[in-house]
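## retry 2 of 3
previous attempt timed out at serialization; input unchanged, resubmitting
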Amino acid sequence: MALSLYTKLEELGFRVDRLEELQYAVVGCASDEVSRALTFACLQIVPNLERTDEEVEHVLDALEGRYIPAGPAGAPTRGMAHILPTGRNFYAVDPRALPSEAAWRVGQQLGSRGDRALSCRRKPVP
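## retry succeeded, writing output
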C-alpha cells in the first residue's frame, strides 16, 4: 500500500495540495498521520534526493582543493533523512549515535571481564 501511495504521489508531481485526494484514491480514506509522512516526503525527502548530483560535484571540488559545504554526518538508511543531500563536509558528530554514559560504563565492565577471562587462559609469556 505504501508503494502505491508513493507511486501515485510521484505521478501527481509530489504536490502537497493533492494528498487527501491521493489517500482517498489509494486507501479509501485520509489520515492526518499519513498526510504528515507524505508532506515530509514532498517537502524534505524528494527535493533533497533531487540534489544528490551535488555529491559528485563536491568530491571533484574537494580534489581541486575547493570549498565543500558543511552538513551533518550520518546515514539516510538509519532514519537520518535530514543529512541529505550527501557529499558535504561533516561538521559534527551525531550525539544520538554515541553511547550514553551508562552504556559506556557497561561496555567498560564487559571489556574488563573479557580481559580477565582471557588472561586466566593465557600461558605466561617466556
